[in-house]
Protein 1
Amino acid sequence: MFTGIVEEIGTIQEIKQGTKSSILTVQGKKIFEDLKLGDSVAVNGVCLTVTGININTFTADVMSETINRSSLGSLKTGGHVNLERALPANGRFGGHIVSGHIDGTGTISAIEKDDNAIWYTVNTSDKIMRYIVEKGSVAIDGISLTVAKATADSLSISIIPHTAKATILSEKNRGSIVNLENDVVGKYVEKLIASQQIEKRPSNITREFLAKAGY
């Protein structure tokens, strides 16, 4: 599990392309303080398993499902990525619950300066937007962010200068593809309600109850 608080910006050192998969070699610094084989690292929000470690580099396999669902297939050698190690049991929970399992991608349609803040608007599918809630959480390329605005087919976030500097969002342009992960709480709530409706079990947890509780 991750929190969406990016620890550092890494660099893609090598990409070994397979028929439908690839092997990434990623260079970093901070995450190697205690990185071990088998550890999980979020690379642009995608949970990958460390399969090899060298001097400030690690390798990870990327399977076809991950390539199809995320933007990792478009990475280039020398490109930058957001990196975050899995949350330790005694770590600070600075963002929100991020699984590293990408729900899909979106396209940046607008970037606007607002005094010291920067607004990003991301267009995406109904599949993603159904779980987007204004003032709720979303992970964009592994960054825990608050949804400032939401429409039928887009979400907007506003970031401070520190977030721009500490992540690769500052390198994005209009038309850039980003990885999106919805807040897992909404998906579980939907599944719970759907199963109760199918089984016709009486329950005090209704849509009205959740709406009054702020969900």
Protein 2
Amino acid sequence: MSGHSKWSTIKRKKGALDAKRSKMFSKIVKEIQIAVKEGGVDPEGNPRLRLAINNAKGVNMPKDNVERAIKKGSSDGDNLQETSFEGYGPYGIAFFIECLSDNNQRTVGEVRAVFNKRNGNLGTNGSLSFMFDRKGTFTILKSDFDIEEFELEMIDAGAEEFEIEDDKIIITCALEDFGNIQKKLDELGVEAENAELQRIPNDTKVLDVEEAKQIMAMIDAFEELDDVQNVFHNLEMTDELAEALANE
């Protein structure tokens, strides 16, 4: 199993235990709003909105919440802007943080405070982006379709990795093939539980369990911030760390 897939698996299992439902909904609501502002209210003509709505279904967000988010995004609601931050945590772990915010000054202050409190350093934009590749990932619940045939269809559409983990299929593709994979899934009538663009580290760093737990606490601190949408890093999710997290 590749390092980033292992991390995704552990994150999902951990998230099932301690992620706050309201935080998940808040992230998707913001994504819907920014998608509407960018490309309009019609999901058929707005791939980003269609993706956000699919992800809302994946976490069982009520339809009323989705409709309110679309309406707010099409009105003069929150003036959300996309912004990102890069920096180092303890032990040389690199962080790339994506945010959606209506107050950039507040967001900068909150992100910087986490870096400072946990012995990290906020860097300049672009300073660490070369350490991460932009990849698309799709999480699909296994169904009664032919897995081997489905894998071939996905490879033809541009899948780089096709991994089966418990009752889920994880598909990874290059950024430029994200739309092709989504289109092929639509053609096959297969709905992804979750689909997103991630920043996958080119190289990961191995820390001992106690050091790694400090990084995990830092990740949690970032993810608790209202304006933070995604936190990417290059900590290697070793079997030892995965076991320690599973037993917490």
Protein 3
Amino acid sequence: MELNIVGRPLLIVISGPSGVGKDALLHEMRKSRLPLHFVVTVTTRTRRRGETDGSDYHFISRSEFERMIDEGELLEWANVYGNYYGVPKKDLQQALGKGLDAVVKVDVQGSANIKRILPEAVFIFVAAPSISELKERLKQRKTESSIDLELRIKAAEEEMGSLPMFDYVIVNYEGELEKAVSEIEAIITAEKCRVRARSIEI
């Protein structure tokens, strides 16, 4: 009997509270030996220093974002801290159509939305070693006002309660970024070895 074992492309959802290092992880993952396609989120928030339009995010106007909602161009979207964030559907469809594993970075709210739409995606929660260290990372980032900082810290504490929704958790220790990336690569490799492959249809 001949077996036709061909792994289907995966949708890998990277999530976690603000300040755990999701952007740094994605930046390092782009150097990976794995053939991954990184879906760039669209947002209405202001671009921060060091961010590149089209790489970190697609920075668009509120009116353009609302047009994308109306025309069904977003897989999921959410209002986070007064700004819109969304995952463009077309980019994801094209990547999966080519047989590429697609990586999406969203907040915990976005993960919950995707879980309802595509439960067969691979959900990875990125965490800091402790809430106290997470608070320190957010303070060092210096991108929020004191009020916004407190909101993000409170949200992070609540988001830790969403852990059971995810398939895996990665602890991103300070100075050990490569280790965290290796763990994500190991998860992807293991998923490719599943007897029952995940099926993603958009």
